[in-house]
Design brief:
This protein is α/β, with parallel strands linked by helices and 377 residues long. The protein folds into four domains: 15-83, no CATH class; 101-188 and 278-285, Periplasmic binding protein-like II (D-Maltodextrin-Binding Protein, domain 2); 191-268, 3-Layer(aba) Sandwich (D-Maltodextrin-Binding Protein, domain 2); 293-377, ACT domain (Alpha-Beta Plaits), CATH 3.30.70.260. Helix content is 43%, strand content 26%. The strands form two sheets. Strands 1, 2, 3, 4, 5, 11, 12, 13, 14 and 15 form a ten-stranded mixed beta sheet that branches. A five-stranded mixed beta sheet has the order 8-7-9-6-10. Helix 1 crosses helix 3 (61-82) and helix 2 (39-55) packs antiparallel against helix 3 (61-82).
Length: 377
Amino acid sequence: MPIDEIRREIDELDRDLLPKILRRMELSAQASEDDGLSPAEIKGREREMMKWATERAGEMEPYIHRFYSSLFELGRAYRECVNPAGTKIRGILAEALSNAPSQFPQGGTVAVQGVEGANSQMAADSLFPRGNLMFFKSFEAVFDAVESGLCRFGVIPIENSTNGSVRAVYELLNRKNVSIVRSTRLCIRHELLAKPGTTIDKIREIRSHEQALGQCSEFLKSLGNKVSVVPCANTAMAAELASRSEFGDIAAIASHPACELYGLVPIAKNIQNSDNNYTRFICISKEREIYPGADRISLILALKHRPGALYEVLSMLTALEINLIKLESCPIVGHDFEFMFFFEMQGSVRDSRVAAMLETLEQTCESFKFLGNYAES
């Protein structure tokens, strides 16, 4: 066929298809509302329709399968928007939106892991210029301080652009009853710090947090086997330990502000693997609060252990044009080869489509935890 005739026929088919697809979505929403079908029953009907379509598709079966999968997802998204369900997440969102003041606070009692000079302290000072900082030995102690009400907020690192996620923090987010209300990024510049007069050839031990050690792995490798590397709880704690070194042969990997705080000097500067080295910090709160300008959503989901479960979630986000920022899996303790997933996406729960999507996830996933809707500075 000549190309003009092909295009003309395609245009005619599109003009016929559009009203039928729109009518199908309207009828689907009406059927869901009038028949009171459960999500499982709706899924069963979709499987029957998919079987009917793919059996008649011949060699185009894979393409027809994808087409109908997208059609079902669009229908579900429209149904949830038109007929919102009375789910737990709806109450959580209403509470979080009503609790938050019009502006993110500048002060308050803030829990931070480590000691003065830690990167977490600098991130906390950035988020809370008038904050009252309280220092704790571990990430879990920070979560406990927030969960108990001892501190209004907590600031903790969650991922680094070079060395990846802080898995312990994700696990605590899953176990503890807190919400993410803000996040920020801090450019990290690492230095090798030691007592004045120490030279690099005299150092026998280097201490730092395991994330910082990973971010400086190339520098550490260049020192050979003569220097032992010892992880510790925090970069600033490592600097404090180096300052108490009797012979000056212990060094720390930390940020420059630790020099003045602990009487150290930099032996080597900018030793991180990449100059584009950023750590992302989150601010947690016991109160569920969603402040104006919130455009990032974090979730923890456990999906049904069957083929296509993750694809269905991703196709729903695609249908709603929601941008997925992060997806990471973590094994579920006690379940062989089963995983929970950490999702971060762009969106606001003030958007009815996004709120409906969260309700659908709560209804269809094995477990669902809404971590927060927040802004990143």
